[in-house]
From TrEMBL:
Coiled coil: none annotated. This is Adhesin transport system outer membrane protein. It comes from the Bacteria. GO terms for molecular function: efflux transmembrane transporter activity. PROSITE patterns: PROKAR_LIPOPROTEIN. Keywords: Signal. The keyword Signal applies. Residues 1-17 form the signal peptide.
């Protein structure tokens, strides 16, 4: 008898829901039919945003040192954002089933002091699109989490590449400053011999000793910078990268690529719109079919509910609509912010390229001047300090030139990072 009563309640409820009907074609005013289940329930397959993220290709040359750095740090990534994406996917998958009836027990005491178990069943018939909006909100939550994961992954690779380029730049400088320290030591030996022979003044020896110490200090600073950057990089990587060397050219950003910040704003817009629809539906009436069955009785009913209408209801509905307009404005703001950043980086890159070309010319001229002064010194036409001063200028121009090359590459990587092109999308 008990089982028959439960079954009768369930049949009565679904029959009632069928009589009311679910008008799926009325733009969410009546209840929507059951969506697809399974992994696709998260709408990841139908999401343009997630598809676009997955299709992104890294601008880092395959197999290059940059690519190896990216692989190493991604292999060691704790990926907190990935855990959030998984949670969002599970929430979306659960939301796709919110059209199903809700079934639950209720246990109470009767007037005789006995426990009475009742089976409760509820089915939404009409909710002004609330359940549909809840599914849209959960799907948009997945998009926001996916964009966040892509941003965090690209930023992690960018941070690692900064460290690697810092180390490479310091090692390139150390090669120049190391040679300079060795040459200054040779000049110092010559000067010491000349002072001992009474040919040169001791003041020149003191000045040259200071220059030698400065050259050695520059070398030590470059070596320490490289060691510090590599230590931090190795802390991020799954395996040591001390032996990795070399830099690569970076391909330009493909035309039409959307910045990550804009894609994140698009996901936020969809979520905000869904949230506004949920809020709006909560202010309007709804209709629910319910049924209850226990060992003694079974019943079914239609429940008319929803938000209470008042003088402020119109303003509340207007606020929900206004939040959608604000979400649209956020996308335009994201476009503008990214455009400003990219424009600044591109101008900076153009300046660095120009400076690199100019300093290259100056470094070559300084080297020719040093060679000329060296020949004149050997011919007895120049003093040692004349040659040392010209040599010091040549070293400074070389250090400036080599540094600009790494700065330019770092700027190109920064532009790629704005578009999320440092990691392959399907790998993220």
């Amino acid at each position: 008898m008990r089982r028959a009563a439960y079954l009768a309640a369930g049949v009565a409820l679904f029959a009632l829901a069928g009589c009311m009907g679910s008008n799926d074609g009325q733009s969410g005013e009546a209840y929507e039919a059951a969506p697809t289940h399974g992994l696709n329930a998260a709408n990841t397959q139908g999401s343009h945003l997630i598809t676009s993220l997955q299709a992104r290709r890294s601008v880092l040359p395959e197999g290059s040192s940059f690519d190896q750095v990216a692989d190493a740090v991604m292999a060691a990534n704790s990926r907190a954002a990935e855990a959030e994406l998984r949670a969002a996917v599970l929430r979306s998958s659960a939301a796709q089933k919110n059209w199903l009836p809700q079934i639950g027990p209720e246990i109470s005491l009767d007037n005789m002091g006995d426990f009475v178990a009742t089976l409760l069943v509820e089915q939404v018939i009409f909710d002004n699109g609330r359940k549909k909006a809840e599914r849209a909100y959960a799907a948009a939550d997945v998009e926001v989490a996916a964009a966040s994961l892509s941003e965090s992954s690209n930023q992690r690779v960018m941070d690692a590449l900064k460290l690697f380029i810092t180390a490479e730049k310091a090692r390139a400088r150390a090669k120049i400053s190391g040679q300079a320290a060795a040459d200054m030591a040779d000049f110092m030996r010559i000067m010491e011999a000349r002072v001992a022979g009474g040919v040169s003044d001791s003041s020149d020896e003191n000045v040259l000793r200071l220059k030698l110490n400065e050259a050695r200090e520059t070398l030590n600073a470059d070596m320490e910078t490289a060691a510090t950057a590599l230590a931090e990089l190795n802390a991020m990587a799954a395996y040591p990268l001390d032996d990795l060397r070399g830099i690569s050219d970076i391909a330009p950003v493909p035309e039409g690529t959307e910045p990550l910040s804009v894609m994140s704003a698009e996901g936020e817009r969809s979520r905000t719109i869904a949230e506004a629809k949920i809020e709006r539906a909560g202010l309007l009436p709804s209709l629910t079919a319910s049924g209850a069955a226990n060992k003694d009785d079974s019943s079914g009913a239609l429940v008319f509910g929803g938000g209470m209408l008042g003088l402020g209801t119109a303003d509340s509905l207007g606020a929900a609509d206004a939040s959608q307009q604000a979400a649209e404005a956020q996308i335009q703001q994201a476009y503008e912010d990214t455009a400003r950043v990219v424009a600044r980086l591109q101008q900076q890159l153009a300046s660095l390229d120009r400076q690199q070309q100019n300093t290259g010319t100056l470094a070559a001229q300084a080297k020719r001047n040093y060679t000329l002064f060296q020949e004149q010194y050997e011919a007895g036409q120049r003093q040692v300090m004349d040659v040392v001063n010209v040599y010091e200028g040549m070293v400074d121009s070389q250090l400036e030139h080599v540094g600009l090359r790494y700065d330019a590459i770092l700027t190109r990587l920064s532009i790629a990072n704005e578009y999320g092109l440092l990691v392959n999308g399907d790998a993220v």
